[in-house]
Amino acid sequence: MGEPSVFSQIISGDIPAEITYEDDQCVVIEDRAPQAPTHLLIIPRKPLTNLSDAQSEDKSLLGHLIWVAAELGRKLGLDGYRLVINNGRSAGQTVFHLHVHLLAQKKMPEQGLM
User: Fold this and answer.
1) 66-86: per-residue pLDDT in tens?
2) Residue 29 and residue 7: Cα distance in Å, rounded?
3) How far apart are CA 85 and CA 76, in angstroms?
4) What is the per-residue pLDDT across 45-55, written as a single tens digit (0 to 9) for each?
5) Can 64 be counted among the known catalytic residues?
6) Which of the residues 39, 64, 97, 99 is marked catalytic?
7) Check: CATH 3.30.428.10 for 6-104?
8) What residue intervals hold the motif Histidine triad motif (predicted)?
9) Which pTM was predicted?
10) What are the extents of the domains in the chain?
C-alpha cells in the first residue's frame, strides 16, 4: 500500500482540518474546493480506496455514511441535496479514500438518469 491519503492523515490528526461532525465510523469536513454553497465530505475512518473495494462486511458502514448525510441534511435544514460518490479515476475520483460528497444550496442540472 502507498502513502496514506490526505483523508487518512486528517483522520489520524497528522493534517489539521475543521471537522464539522465525527463519530466512531466517519468524519465530515468541508470540501476545500466547493462545487456548491454547501459541500461536505463524509469520510469513513476505514481506509477503503473506493466503493468497488467495499466488501460484504462494509455494508453497515456504507449505510451509516448515507445516514450521516441525511442527518446532516436535517440538522442544516436543507430542503434538497445531492450525494455523489466518484468511483475510480475515470469517474473523477481524485482522493483514493472512499468519501461521499453532500452538495446543496445550488440548483443542480436535471439529469435523465432514470
Assistant:
1) 999 999 999 999 999 999 999
2) 10
3) 21
4) 999 999 999 99
5) no
6) 99
7) yes
8) 97-101
9) 0.91
10) 6-104
